[in-house]
Write a structure and sequence with these properties.
CATH topology of chain A: Beta-Lactamase
Number of domains of chain C: 3
Number of helices of chain C: 11
Distance between the termini of chain A: 26 Å
Order of helices and strands of chain A: HEEHEEEH
Number of strands of chain C: 12
Helix content of chain C: 25-40%
Largest sheet of chain A: 5 strands, antiparallel
Strand order of the largest sheet of chain A: 2-1-5-4-3
Shape of chain A: globular
Number of domains of chain A: 1
Strand order of the largest sheet of chain C: 2-1-3-4-5
CATH topology of the largest domain in chain C: Rossmann fold
Chains: A alpha+beta (134), B alpha/beta (189), C alpha/beta (328)
Largest sheet of chain C: 5 strands, parallel
Radius of gyration of chain C: 23 Å
Oligomer: heterotrimer
CATH architecture of the largest domain in chain C: 3-Layer(aba) Sandwich
CATH class of chain A: Alpha Beta
Strand content of chain C: 15-25%
Order of helices and strands of chain C: EHEEHEEHHEEEHEEHEHHHHEH
Strand content of chain A: 25-35%
């Protein structure tokens, strides 16, 4: 099985990892950031936790379900998926204009404000898009 | 906590990628099935254009308003967390295997053991598609493999593109449910 | 190859149907193994035979005379406790081993005689015993010869072709329908070596033929099954190839919950006792039925659905079946 990360040139993957590292470093409440392929493989993650692979698979499932739900409700394309738990928040965003499709899943602990989390995640997603198109 | 309404009745179609779960649901669902298929990038693992990453969903809408939900699990093992979620509270599991795959027998063992372990009391019916022998010998081996693991499950040659074959699997599941129910629940006719 | 002559003698008054079946089984084995053993056994009238097969305890006055005249008398028993050479139901291998010994014994006596080819000396090959065709299928399954084909004729017209291991058969659609409806009297067919015609009907799974042959053979229990024994299924038959009637599935499902006798299974499956009996016969022919011992049976698996359907399970199942167009 070819790891999803091997679908990209090494220098592109390096750029992706640097952006994830920066995201986590500049936002202390973020505990994990994972770039995922649409078919559920981890492309890159920081930190490199064992649960990153499962988070990758789950985020692709959730993304697909949320898109199916949006279609069913005759809404246009699903943008964000937000899971608010008692002790934290997970945001899953599609990385824009990238083919094949990728998404960014960010896990943050409880004290992070949702609005700010969405803003930093979107910024990172846009930066990732630029790196991946390079 | 999962809240289950008294009308939460479901049948799960499980099995490896490419075994025909989506096709089987489509053959009997009263509503166009909802699918969560995405492009399958890893063609080396399975040469299919798309793969289910969350679930397939269809339903049977009975005359009295009861909805029987039909769920198809994703086939690939990295989505195995969905198997337990979907199988929880299901009436039974229909396991589909691609008989033409070189991994058919090992897939059968793995999936049958996995789903049996998730809920040993849950009825399991196994359908093998694209079997390579017309005389049924291949399935004798599969039936033995399942029985040798202490799993009591029918193993049938089927073509899930044919509605009647999917109905055979469903009817068998219903008969097993009926046979396992307490005497007072048995149908009068 | 040495030729020997053998006769099968049915008792004048048959008290037990099993006796007829036992002799029929022997007949089927003789026929099925023709050409595969060192000795060729030809069925003839008793007066011309070197070996005569009778039922143990048959009071036929001719038996002592045959014995005294040097004919070898073989007794087939239908009593479990018998010490006879063959006790019904016996395996083909046991019968073949016996025939081998008889052949050797006769060879030691001297050269075999030419078989009497007069019509009076031969006996009709086929009987119309209801289980004859099924017994033949069971015997063929033991032979496991996948190279040869057999052709079954209905009044000399070929109507079905059977591979000699029983795993595959072929027939025109009308014949298949008749087999599945039970309107073709399989017991009246004559089977001979033959070949599948070029461009003929496509082969189908032999288990379908043997299933319906067993199902329609008789309303009573198959001769090798006992009414006092509780049976269980070792595994499910391959219903994907058999395409069973709905009641067959119900009976099979009833057997998975606990072993039973025909009337017990009938009650559990909500079918008639005849239906349960016929299905037990079919399951036995499919080789998936075994006698259950006196072991303590596991209690029913608590497999009721996690949620209680509106109106109860019975109503729900009825509604689903009606909705999907499934039979009862």
């Amino acid at each position: 099985m070819q790891p999803a990360s091997q679908r990209f040139a090494p220098h592109i993957l390096d750029a992706v990892r640097r952006q994830l590292v920066e995201l986590v470093a500049t936002n202390t409440q973020i505990t994990l950031a994972v770039v995922t392929s649409a078919d559920g493989f981890e492309v890159a993650a920081h930190p490199d936790l064992p649960m990153a692979q499962r988070i990758a698979a789950m985020s692709s499932s959730l993304q697909a379900l949320s898109e199916a739900m949006a279609r069913e409700a005759s809404l246009s394309r699903s943008r964000n998926l937000i899971i608010e738990a008692d002790s934290g928040t997970i945001v899953v965003l599609g990385i824009p204009d990238i083919s094949p499709r990728l998404s960014l899943a960010v896990v943050a602990s409880g004290s992070e404000i949702l609005g700010r989390l969405l803003w930093v995640t979107r910024s990172c997603s846009a930066a990732l898009a630029r790196s991946l198109r390079a | 906590m999962i809240v289950t309404s008294d009308q939460e009745l479901k049948i799960v179609f499980a099995g490896p990628m490419g075994a025909g779960k989506t096709t089987a649901i489509r053959a009997i669902s009263d509503t166009p099935p909802i699918s969560t298929e995405v492009d399958n990038i890893d063609r080396a693992l399975c040469d299919k254009e798309s793969t289910t990453v969350a679930l397939d969903y269809g339903q049977l809408l009975l005359q009295d308003g009861t909805a029987v939900r039909l769920y198809g699990t994703p086939g690939q093992e990295r989505f195995s967390f969905m198997w337990e979620i979907l199988c929880g509270g299901a009436m039974g599991v229909i396991l589909l295997i691609d008989g033409s795959s070189s991994a058919a027998l090992s897939d059968l063992r793995t999936y049958a053991e996995t789903f049996h372990r998730l809920n040993p009391n849950q009825p399991l019916v196994i359908g093998v598609g694209r079997a390579t022998c017309t005389d049924g010998r291949q399935l004798d081996e599969y039936a033995d493999a399942v029985a040798s693991r202490g799993i009591v499950a029918p193993v049938f040659d089927v073509d899930v593109r044919q509605r009647e074959d999917v109905l055979l699997l469903i009817e068998t599941l219903l008969c097993i449910l009926e046979a396992q129910a307490p005497e007072a629940d048995h149908a009068a006719g | 190859m040495v030729a020997r002559r053998i006769a099968l003698v049915k008792p004048a008054s048959v008290v037990e149907e099993k006796i007829t079946h036992a002799l029929q089984l022997f007949d089927s084995i003789l026929w099925a193994f023709q050409g595969t053993t060192r000795v060729t056994w030809t069925l003839v009238a008793p007066e011309a035979a070197e070996v005569i097969v009778v039922h143990e305890g048959d009071p036929d006055q001719r038996i002592p005379a045959w014995r005294a005249g040097g004919k070898l008398i073989i007794e087939i028993s239908t009593r479990d406790s018998s010490t006879s050479a063959l006790v019904y139901p016996f395996k083909a291998s046991q019968a073949l081993a016996l025939l081998e010994r008889l052949g050797t014994q006769l060879n030691l006596r001297g050269a075999p005689q030419e078989a009497d080819r007069s019509p009076e000396a031969s006996v009709p090959r086929r009987s119309h015993e209801p289980w004859s065709f099924v017994e033949t299928l069971r015997t063929i399954a033991e032979v496991q010869n996948s190279e040869a084909w057999l052709v079954a004729r209905d009044d000399r017209i070929p109507c079905l072709w059977l591979r000699a291991d029983g795993a595959v058969y072929a027939a025109e659609q009308a014949t298949i329908h008749a087999i599945r409806r039970g309107t073709l009297n399989l017991a009246s067919l004559t089977l001979q070596k033959g070949s599948l015609p070029e461009g003929g009907p496509s082969p189908r799974a032999g288990v379908e033929l043997s299933w319906f042959a067993g199902y329609y053979a008789s309303a009573g229990l198959a001769p090798w099954l006992k009414p006092t024994v509780r049976y269980r299924m070792q595994r499910w038959p391959n219903f994907g190839l058999i395409r069973p009637l709905p009641s067959h599935i119900r009976v099979a499902a009833a057997l998975t919950s606990a072993p039973g006798r025909a009337h017990e299974i009938a009650a559990r499956a909500s079918v008639s006792t005849e239906e349960a009996t016929r299905t037990l016969n079919a399951l036995a022919v499919a080789n998936v039925l075994v006698a259950s011992g006196d072991e303590v049976l596991p209690t029913k698996i608590a497999g009721a659905p996690a949620a209680a359907p509106r109106g109860g399970l019975a109503v729900f199942l009825s509604n689903v079946r009606r909705h999907l167009g499934l039979g009862v």
